[in-house]
Prior knowledge:
This protein is mostly helical. It is built from eight helices and no strands. Helix 3 crosses helix 5 and helix 5 runs antiparallel to helix 6. The longest helix is centred in the last third of the chain and has 23 residues, at about 120-140.
Amino acid sequence: MISQPTAFALAAVFLALAGLPLLASPAGAGRRLLSWLLFSPAAAWVLFAPAAGWFASYMWHLGDADFGQFRYQLFGVTVVSAVAAFFVIPEFLAVRGLAGLILLFAQVCLDLSWMNYDPVLVWAGKTTLYAAIVAALVYGTSPYKLRLHEVWLSKAPVRLRALGAVLVLGAVLLAAAATRPVLPPPV
């Protein structure tokens, strides 16, 4: 099992790796990163396959309170749907995979910080995670919106730099939450 500071540190590293290319070179590396995410079949394998595997593992380990009596059927439907997605609807699988990974990892982070009321953790860490959850829900359900936003962002390098700055700020907030000691819940 992963610890809370490690989970938040991993999320901070991910946001920093996504934001620094946009901040440093918006017309070059940042634009290529967004284009790879939107149009590359390799990105679908890199992002959607782990998300589908993680979700299938989650289905396999369901408890009785969460439809666990149907876990084998749910696991089978999940695996068949994930494999079929590569052949039937290959468009935007990378965006959907990234959204799935964000949602699954945010669940891990929020589960680890449950009943922890440290103000830095609440305001810096959980707020950043909930913003990522909202973005993942928006882009996961309507991935074409990311393409439209990518076109809009690419028209001016300052927009890509601003997105990179927001992502790096989120990384700093998550890193601040990761460095806080885990406090016991108040009595």
